[in-house]
């Protein structure tokens, strides 16, 4: 029976490359000359540190641009609160990995409401879609791509 998995993952190698590109861009920007500001990737989180809060806003825009250039959807960003310690402003940006239960339930409901002859089951942080025909599975993929979700979805582990 054909099946595939619906997942939401972020390639951390691409994130690392995007952070390095953002640091390079930060060094060349005129408005950041003489300012101690940097991006740091640690434990699957990007730490932004700068002297002022408005610089953090500019750094978030630089990071988003670098992520887009590397093919990563910016919906995966999970911004933390801004912490001020002395003269420094620090913010950590996490990444949403995996499909949460609430989103998985809405996806399953959406698939069942479409009346496509497939079974959808929640398996941890992913969905397994199973059907008798490959065409039905492709219809489900098109349905999920067309719907607007709060985080990007990828399809993998396609089996015939």
Automatic annotation (TrEMBL):
GO CC annotation: cytosol
Keywords on record: Nucleotide-binding
Purpose of the protein: Nucleotide-binding protein.
Presence of keyword Transcription: no
Pfam families in UniProt: YajQ
Similarity comment text for this entry: Belongs to the YajQ family.
Biological classification of the source: Bacteria, Pseudomonadati, Pseudomonadota, Gammaproteobacteria, Aeromonadales
SUPFAM superfamilies from the UniProt entry: YajQ-like
MF term (GO), any: nucleotide binding
Protein name, as recorded: Nucleotide-binding protein CBP31_11900
Originating organism: Oceanisphaera profunda
């Amino acid at each position: 029976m054909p099946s595939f998995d619906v997942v939401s993952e972020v390639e951390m190698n691409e994130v690392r490359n995007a952070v390095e590109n953002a640091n390079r861009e930060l060094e060349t920007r005129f408005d950041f000359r003489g300012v101690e500001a940097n991006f740091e990737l640690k434990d699957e989180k990007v730490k932004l540190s700068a002297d002022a809060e408005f610089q953090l806003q500019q750094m978030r825009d630089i990071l988003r641009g670098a992520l887009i250039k590397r093919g990563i959807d910016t919906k995966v960003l999970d911004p933390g609160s801004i912490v001020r310690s002395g003269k420094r402003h620090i913010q950590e940006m996490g990444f949403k990995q995996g499909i949460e239960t609430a989103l998985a339930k809405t996806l399953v409901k959406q698939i069942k409401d479409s009346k496509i002859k497939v079974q959808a089951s929640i398996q941890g942080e992913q969905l397994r879609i199973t059907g008798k025909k490959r065409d039905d599975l492709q219809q489900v993929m098109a349905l999920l791509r067309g719907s607007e979700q709060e985080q990007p979805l990828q399809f993998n582990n396609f089996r015939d």
